[in-house]
Amino acid sequence: MVERSAVNRNVAGSSPAQGANSYEASASPERVTLHTLLGNYPTTTALRNGLLTSPLIAFDFADVKVSNTAFKPFVCEQKFDLGELAIVTFLQARAYGKPYLLLPAVVLGRGQHHTIAYNSERGLLTPADLHGRRVGVRSYTVTTGTWLRGILAEDYGVDFRRVRWVTFEEPHVAEYRDPNIVEPAPAGSEMLPMLLSGELDAAIFANELPDPRLKTLIPNAYAAEQAWAERHGGAPINHMMVVRESIVRERPDVVREVYRLLSESKNAAPAGADSADIRFGIEPNRQSLETIIRYAVEQGLIPRRFAVDELFGDVARELGQ
Question: Could you tell me if 241 and 261 are in contact, meaning their C-beta atoms sit under 8 angstroms apart?
Answer without folding.
Answer: no
